[in-house]
Amino acid sequence: MTTWLDDIFAVEKPVIAMLHLSALPGDPGYDAEGGLDAVIARARQELHDLQAGGVDGVMFSNEFSLPYLTQTEPITAITMARIIGELRSEITVPFGVNVLWDGRASIDLAMATGARWVREIFTGVYASDFGLWNTNVGEVARHRARVGAAGVKLLFNIVPESATYLADRDLESIAKTTVFATLPDALCVSGATAGAPTDSQALAIVKKAAGAVPVFVNTGVRAENIGDQLSIADGAVVGTFFKRDGRFENAVDPDRVVTLMTAAREFRATLS
């Protein structure tokens, strides 16, 4: 059965690479001396390294805007739009965006830049490291329609990092009702933090409950486990493994990109 993943990526079980933008204006870690020129220069180099390594897609995120806001300041998405605009002619693979942790801002950024998808926390109420974390998926869905972004696919992270679902519900129930009641285009299953392994049993539970909705393994994918993870999931989102020494804070290591994508292609070859 053909899915929107086939239409966008034209490969089975795509690997989406995270492009983690440096801290942006307004963020505590922003390098005002280097300014946006330094942010753009690093993003450009990482974009080229990821694409040259063979990734199937790229997702821009403000990953170094720590600590995150659940309702971002306008300067964040505006700055991200400028960065993506400057790099737009150099992007050769499908791309998405993620304004952490703000669904509306992510949709607005996607609409402004031509991104094909967004990843966010769209459903649930959580106790998190960022305080009480509430969502309003109905409002966000209507906002997407109002701004003409109906074609932007919504990837729902239903196991958010640094947070615990407040309701006493099991993961299977959450996945089933999310699919039925909130109309996600895909579900993402994560570990505790960026780079943390995603539990294979949790991934399998969500995959079974999701029916025809694609499921992505969202954190902790490595060259040595990508075959096992993609044997369950419909695709993978990879960030930390691609970094030098596999450390979240480092820049992309081109050799690590090639290593993982080689393993991904070898696994996909077993499917045909």
Automatic annotation (TrEMBL):
It comes from the Bacteria. InterPro entries: BtpA, RibuloseP-bd_barrel. Coiled coil: none annotated. It holds the Pfam family BtpA. Belongs to the BtpA family. This is Photosystem I assembly BtpA. The lineage of its organism: Bacteria, Bacillati, Actinomycetota, Actinomycetes, Micrococcales.
